Amino acid sequence: MASDSSDHTDDDGTDDAHDGPLGPTLTIGELAARSGLATSALRFYEKEGLLVSKRTRGGQRRYARSSLRRVAFVRAAQELGLTLGEIREALASLPDGRTPTKHDWQRLSRGFRATLDARIEGLVRLRDRLDGCIGCGCLSMKSCALYNAGDRAAKRGSGARYLIGDPEP
Fold this sequence. Notes:
disordered N terminus
């Protein structure tokens, strides 16, 4: 079998590389070069349902050119701190699983706003408490946000629950 990234000729010697039912397409190597991602990352995105490819008769992946925008959307959403699950859910809300348009992005970003605002508030709270907590070195058993007697905060989740803003008992 030919390489995903360079040879555009099928096993039978015919060239079906860049024109298919979706119009002009990209090989995985071309999509990687244009998007700045490794081919392994693109395969991972595909496995996770964030990206779709078609296969040539020779088994090579071909991506619609709109996949460039889809990859850019995924990367932008990751930069915002969204999980792959949140990104997958957002993409699944699009009709026909297509790439987001400007209007779609505006609608999706409104949905992300509450999540992002909560994360920003949490980061600000954490930043402000770090100055007075970890930096002080006191580790007072009565007032320290890191102290978790009997592991009582474990019911609320992992991490330093009091430091990230959970109320102390």
